[in-house]
Amino acid sequence: MEAVKVGVIGITGFGGRIVKAVAEAPELELITGFSRTPQSRKELVEEYKCKEVSSAEGLLGMDEIEAVLIATPNHMHGEYVIKAAQAGKNVFVDKPITNEIAEAKECIAACKEAGVVLQVGHNSRRSGRIRRLKKLIDEGELGQVIACEANNSHAGGLKLTKERWRWYNDKCPSGPLMQLGVHCIDTLHYLLGPVKEVSSFIRKLATPAEIDDTTSTILIFQSGVVGHVGAYYACPSVKRTAVFGTGGNAYVGANRHILLVRADRTEEEIETEQVNTILEEVREFGRCVREGKRPEVGGEEALLALAVVRAAIKASQGKRTVTVEEILQ
Prior knowledge:
Rossmann fold; about 35% helix
């Protein structure tokens, strides 16, 4: 297939990893990228031999660009998704789709009206460990699933300064839940289906920033499965998922193995494939643009993950259980 010509808005931080993946993907051709920092733009041009552009609007106005990848701070996602769609560009935006439900719905509507692809970068579900865990569940290796746990945490909140957008509640509501826990939520949706209702405790305990840093969220899935998501911004790094069933428990950590503990107490370490999840998702984006296919994680899937986060925020504030349906209305 002919490579899709793309531009990237937000080329530093995690955006730099997206740029690298774009450069490696045979389905994509990097035309340009934009950062508000002139030095970052200069370095991009020098490293990737691409064109320089001085504004996001200039990038969106380039006729040769067919698609845009957005890796800006969360609170800017919606603005650029809508502008890109209105310019007729296919859109990949990093997670979360936006911070707010109404704005996420506007993004979905704008892309549908423009007839362009909208893909959201929930890449955690793409790891070899999670793909293999999904297979174990679907093949009945765990029996009837009754519960699940996921945790995605690190100490980044302790290093925040007022110059960082993550410092502020209006830009990063619920702190680590919106930034890290949303990965867990999408992964659990992928493994076990949609969540029905949510309870949560969200607290600020250690970070100097405005945002909360410690979140503990209970999920009730539509199937009846009970789940827990932990997302903390003030402890050493944690990344793990566990699923519990009548026939066995499966534990996924940071290495490439799944520990399967069967009901008879026998244990098996299952080695899994190592996957470059960012490269995989941007390659899929290119195929979807060129072949007119729907991505695995589109706007609707991302909206459901965001709805669980917003339900958790509302549940914590109101000290009550909140349904996802209530948030989506």
